[in-house]
Specification:
By secondary structure, the chain is an alpha/beta fold. The protein contains 18 helices and 20 strands. The strands form five sheets. Strands 1, 2, 3, 4, 5, 6, 17 and 18 form an eight-stranded mixed β-sheet that branches. Strands 7-16-8-9-12 form a five-stranded parallel β-sheet, with helices on one face. The chain is globular. It binds ligand NA7.
């Protein structure tokens, strides 16, 4: 189909990660002319950029892949219960090939600006190379965790050794052998990379500001026989993901922490600690993340495990979080993480005791000493959720900047639309259901596709969420977050990033309602003919 007169494309999608790829496929099925702009040289998004050793799923592989195509499910075998990054990237390349997606994707094309024009009801997208491209719809598939942040430490640029942010890991091989390596950051990423570096580095120093509560991943290979059973069970696997709170295979236990005897409680915790995946986080007692006393029980249990696993009691204490309870931040899953600190070549520096003063050409200077390094790895995370939007100059009707609309925190309708930004549709935007992300992506993409189909069938060319719809959704987001202990803790869940100007205070960054509740609301909007939206 030809694009409407004056336009280059019917839709422009920013990003060729899991959501951008699927969106392209769906819109092409409608017969639309779509262009995807991708900053990287290949598809894969998160799995393209995060090539650091140790990067892998914490969701079961077979619950993470696309579910929409029988053919894809038939033809792809997962080799491990929690696949590593190279395999996931291969998978996404396989999907791109299979669906012949690359011909509509322009790589090495970072979008720097996107401006809406009312007269033509269109978006003009500007790329880094200065070229402009105009389309009816702007679909952002930029990812909630894709704008990496470096620490704001004096001298970062002066270091003369190798320096890498985990989310900008080089494509070629990186060797730690014989090197003195520093890792800054102990989130889900830091925990994964630390385990790998410790295997071969001459010396590893971990700079930890806040310890996190980690739990065992219990990964293992998938045998051919198991893969056959998984394949036969796909309908059941995806049905289950649709029913659970956050689309994982795990779901909260209906019991309260104190409704069982202390012995039963301990036995349940032991069982969860010995099972693969996120069960201990999202399949625990139902009150774990809302009742401080219940949370203290599981925290004490995990603290005991850390003390058992780390030989030096002083190091163990440093690894036990004191200012937040288990599960109130993202739980990193690990394979021998705590044992790393029993190795003679590994040292833990607690930045609360000895802050970094500056990075020097030779290494890192703390109040206590100057540490010399051959390599510094920044596992310092992302300007989450709104960061990837903030890095693009997005302007809606009347030239209003999205960054200004979201000053003080993002507000959206269903995480998909924003008042004042007609024809901009967000995939995995702020305040959409997250959890096991591909499940939410498929839902988001299907909803957006249905909306666009609805508009095209009726010759409509403009969609906007009215302010009251946005305000209403924000009320729901607030209500869903009420009483959660995670609201009282600094993390990307609460929008805090010490490395980003203006993100030092907690906001409601994330939708914490259930995925089924989210879908129910979105389905209702569609079923009512999108009456809540302004369509023209
Ligand atoms: P996270 O979870 O945001 O972790 C970043 C880590 O880096 C965390 O330990 C931070 O300490 C630390 N950090 C950040 N800035 C600094 C400075 N300036 N000095 C010292 N330490 C610092 O990011 P991840 O990449 O691990 O994971 C992000 C998500 O991606 C994860 O939740 C998964 O869902 C996938 P802090 O805790 O802020 O004190």
């Amino acid at each position: 189909a030809a694009p409407p007169p004056g336009l280059d494309h019917e839709a422009i999608v920013i990003g060729a990660g899991m959501s951008g790829l699927y969106q392209l496929h769906r819109l092409r099925e409608l017969g639309m002319r779509v262009r995807v702009f991708e900053a990287g040289t290949g598809v894969g998004g998160t799995w393209y950029w995060n090539r650091y050793p140790g990067a892998r799923f914490d969701s079961e592989s077979y619950s993470y892949g696309y579910s929409f195509s029988r053919e894809l499910l038939e033809e792809w075998d997962w080799s491990e219960h929690f696949a590593a990054q190279p395999e996931t990237l291969r998978y996404l390349n396989f999907v791109a090939d299979k669906l012949d997606l690359r011909r509509d994707i322009r790589f090495r094309s970072r979008v720097t600006a996107a401006h809406y024009e009312e007269a033509t009801r269109s978006w003009t997208v500007t790329l880094e190379d200065g070229t402009r491209h105009r389309a009816r719809f702007l679909i952002t598939a930029v990812g909630p965790l894709s704008a990496p942040t470096l620490p704001r430490i004096e001298g970062v640029e002066t270091f003369r050794g190798e320096a890498y942010h985990t989310a900008r890991w080089p494509h070629g091989p990186v060797s730690f052998a014989g090197k003195r390596v520093a890792v800054i950051g102990t989130g889900a990423t830091g925990v994964q990379v630390i385990q790998e570096v410790a295997k071969t580095a001459a010396h590893l120093t971990v700079f930890q500001r806040t310890p996190n509560w980690c739990a065992p991943l219990h990964n293992r290979p998938i045998t051919p026989e198991e893969m056959r059973r998984i394949r036969a069970g796909y309908p059941e696997i995806f049905r289950r993901c649709q029913e659970t709170f956050s689309c994982f295979l795990h779901t909260p236990d209906p019991r309260g922490t104190f409704e069982v005897t202390p012995e039963e409680r301990e036995a349940f915790y032991e069982k969860l600690y010995s099972e693969p995946g996120f069960g201990i986080w999202v399949g625990n007692f139902r009150d774990m993340l809302t009742d401080p006393a219940a949370n203290a029980e599981i925290s004490a249990f995990v603290a005991k495990k850390i003390r058992q696993r780390v030989k030096d009691p002083q190091v163990a204490e440093k690894l036990i979080p004191k200012d937040h309870g288990f599960g109130t931040r993202r739980v990193p899953l690990e394979t021998g993480y705590y044992e790393v600190y029993n190795q003679p070549n590994v040292r833990l520096v607690d930045l609360r005791e000895t802050p970094i003063e500056r990075i020097t050409p030779a290494g890192i200077r703390t109040g206590e000493a100057e540490h010399a390094f051959d390599m510094i790895i920044y596992a310092t995370g992302f300007d989450a959720i709104t960061g990837s939007f903030d890095r693009i100059d997005i302007r809606g009707a009347g030239g209003r900047r999205l960054k200004d609309r979201w000053a003080g925190g993002p507000q959206t309708f269903l995480g998909i639309l924003v008042d004042g930004f007609p024809n901009m549709l967000m995939l995995m935007g702020p305040h959409t259901a997250l959890g096991n992300i591909p499940r939410s992506i498929e839902y988001n993409v299907d909803w957006v596709t249905d909306l666009i189909r609805h508009m095209r069938e009726r010759g409509l060319t403009r969609v906007e969420a009215p302010p009251e719809a946005v305000a209403g959704w924000f009320e729901h987001v607030k209500a869903a977050a009420a009483g959660l202990l995670s609201n009282e803790v600094n993390s990307w869940f609460t929008g805090v990033n010490t490395n980003v100007e203006g993100k030092q205070t907690r906001i409601l960054a994330r939708y914490s309602g259930s995925a089924p509740a989210y879908r129910e609301r979105c389905d209702a909007v569609a079923a009512a003919g999108y009456r809540e939206l302004s369509l023209a």
